[in-house]
Amino acid sequence: MFRHLLILVLGLGLAGAAQAQDLQPVLQIHADEIANPSRSSVSVTLDDLVSTGAPQVSDFLERWQDKGVWQRDDGLFFFAKQSGDDLAIQDIDSGAQSVAPENAFTQLKPNGGVRRLIGTALVQFQLTDPDVDRRSTAVDSIARRPDASQLAPLLKSIEGEPDKKLKARKTQLANFLSASFAPDTPDRIAAINSMSTDTSIEARAVLNQILTVKAGVSADQPKGNVARILTVGSDLSQADAYARLVDAGLAAPVVSHNDIRDALAANVVDGRAGGIPTAQLDTQDARERAYTALAQAGTVPPLVTMAEQRAATENYVFYEAYDEKNIAITEAARAALNSIETRVGVSQAVDLTLDALSLASIYFLAAIGLAITFGVMGVINMAHGEFIMMGAYTGYVVQLFVPDYTLSIIVALPLAFAITFAAGVVMERLVIRHLYHRPLETLLATFGISIALQQLAKNIFGTQARPLTSPAWLDGALVFSDVIQISYIRIAIFVLALLFLGLILFVLKRTRLGLEVRAVTQNPGMAASMGINPDRINMLTFGLGSGIAGIAGVAIGLYAKVTSEMGADYIVQSFMTVVVGGVGNVWGTLAGASLIGFLQKGIEWFNPSNTLAAQTYMVLFIILFIQFRPKGIVAQKGRAAAD
Questions:
Q1: DSSP readout, 381-443?
Q2: What is residue 190's predicted lDDT score, i.e. its pLDDT?
């Protein structure tokens, strides 16, 4: 009696309590529902709490959702935490804190469904919370579980949102909710139309949800918002069409072979089933004749022949209808989705082009040193990949002593060039110069050197991959849209490839060394007669090609793993790049790298699950290409071209 009187008094004083911003009186009105909430009825309680506008509501909903609300024996609610055998309690309105025995309180434990509803109500407060992280969390919560009730508070929070990025996200999400839940059709159509340029996965998911269809069958022309009429034989198989009739209760089910066997076994009388001795039921035709006899006697359901199935499906129209009843909305959604898919297709082509350019720049860096040595000297250097590996390990060692990653890369690039240049000169002086004009022996010798260098790297650095860490400003990716993005490391490698292209062209076209290299490349005998020392040029050229491979190793190491075998991953592509582009030509190497990079990415796009198959197809294409253009894309000029 006293409890009901207390609730009545609290109810009469609700207006005054709301003005005083006290939440406890409202909680007492709904005390039973708060203490034992159910998903079907808690919404009324939540609506009343939200409508008070009291600042404590947000905190109460959070605590309630996290099981941090306790009810005292007299019915009052408190925030509480366990502290040994007691509770540290806090008054919901005043915030006064005290300690009380736990046995005088009961913890409120709403179930998962109720907690989700509390979370939905809580989002309305979090959208305007002073903390930007809480506002962002609220927006993410709406995106995960969109609901019509969230549209109004979301729209209301947009205008006062100070964070530009979050405001744009709120606007985008409001469009998504408006497209699905706006009460007026023009508002829904306007929201849908505004999404026609949004290529995000969320936008496509919203439109696909609006365009959800369900299968239907009708004896007459179908009514409602029909998506399309299905043609039996092309859009729908005969078996599927008849199965839909069976599911709709418009046709008798098909009797399977197993059903026939089971029916015959259940109706054996005096050694016969359907009038046929069981010993003769060893063929499907005999079993069907026996079953037909049982069906004519009314013992089992009749068989449905293929002719009967075709006749039945011809009498009905099969179709797909939109779940959305409004034709104008589905038409707008279809037009917006078509526009998005077109943009996505273009974006995918751009993204594929960027990936291909990135891969081409990597192949160009890896192959340009080989193009110089192979083109000028005709040396098949199978150890070229190991010079790339040496450059990558140089970058790793530098970072052990220079912890600043930006400075370490600046130091590693020239140091890698110097080390691999020296290694190339030593290799040329000790091995290569004794094997000129003996390509098979050169190939075998350099192959042996590559194995030796790999083993040396394993002995020094071990078999585990070593990190070559990029500077912080190369972390992440340049994002143009949900479809188009490219990592900053790939951009840096692309820029480095362009710088090398310009530098090599300058050396070859504007310096005396370049003039002598080109002379030796085109006609070694004539160059020697003009006072040029081909032996010295060969040494410097081989060192230059090796040094460039070392710099390429630093760049590639930022993108790929640094191991003793990393050079083997690029040696085949490097040779293909040089041969396809045109031996001894910088522009040919660039053209070859571009062709191979675009070709590999294109093949991978058609067969993304099997990169090994893509590389195999690429090699086959290259072999065919060389058959028709053996001198490469950019053929060598001069007398040497005819050799």
A1: -TTHHHHHHHHHHHHHHHHHH---HHHHHHHHHHHHHHHHHHHHHHHHHHTGGGSTT-HHHHH
A2: 92
